[in-house]
Write a structure and sequence with these properties.
Layout lengths: L3 H20 L6 E4 L2 E6 L5 E10 L5 E12 L6 E4 L5 H5 L6 E3 L3 E4 L4 E9 L7 E11 L16 E10 L7 E8 L10 E7 L16 H9 L7
Length: 230
């Protein structure tokens, strides 16, 4: 005979089966890789080819329109802005789209398939030394019958960011522009905001450590021949 304990364990297993089956399902969606990459350009380089991969994890074939566009900084929080024709001359100075060539203008990716797309940076004399930033966009094309009447369609656009650095530039020049923290006489600050500026010609990725010290404590440690512990 089956005991109550065995019945309880059997019930738990039956309840858990849908969750296990759900976790075993394959991921869906459209993927463009790599999400971003850095390309080093030497002065005597002519053409620098590389590849991007588009993967279709959905159940139907998908057509993508391919294009190249410049991108820049959106705000102080690190957002990315794709730059169109009205962008400023300063933004286009560091653009890359004018020197990008795509192997094709569109591509069809079947369900479960991964397709390679060729991209080439053409190192013409007009590409000056320094950092240049562009993106390849893969825009999913909606079927003509996908949206009817007052329905709203969602168009997926995949992007792969390209950061190119041509030798001969002065490099990055990182400066601490501003600091801000909330504090009072009775309590230490709990949050610091540091603003950095880059007056160089190549992008910079600031990384570091903020150390908070008390001048009075440091003076006492020096007098006692002791060192503060990080």
């Amino acid at each position: 005979m089956i005991s109550r304990r065995q019945i309880w364990l059997l019930a738990v297993m039956i309840v858990c089966l849908p969750a296990v089956a759900m976790s075993a399902t394959k991921p869906t969606g459209l993927v463009l890789t790599p999400a971003f990459q850095t390309v080093q350009i030497k002065t005597n380089d002519g053409r620098l080819p590389f590849e991007l991969s588009i993967t279709n994890r959905d159940t139907s074939a998908q057509t993508f329109a391919l294009s190249a566009i410049d991108f820049g900084s959106l705000d102080e929080e690190g957002g990315v802005a794709f730059l169109g024709a009205p962008a400023s001359e300063l933004e286009h100075k560091y653009g890359l789209a004018a020197w990008l060539e795509l192997s094709q203008k569109s591509v069809v990716v079947s369900p479960g398939q991964t397709v390679k797309v060729g991209v080439t940076i053409v190192n013409r004399p007009s590409l000056v030394a320094g950092g240049h930033y562009g993106a390849v966009l893969a825009t999913a094309q909606l079927p003509g019958s996908a949206v009817k009447g007052e329905q709203v369609g969602v168009q997926q656009v995949l992007s792969s960011l390209i950061l190119a650095v041509k030798e001969g530039a002065g490099g990055a020049k990182l400066d601490l522009k501003k600091t801000n923290w909330h504090h009072s006489f009775w309590r230490l600050p709990t949050e610091f905001k540091l603003g950095f500026g880059n007056s160089g010609t190549v992008h910079a990725l600031p990384r570091g450590t903020v150390v908070v010290t008390d001048p009075g404590v440091e003076k006492w440690l020096k007098a006692s021949s002791m060192k503060p512990v990080a």
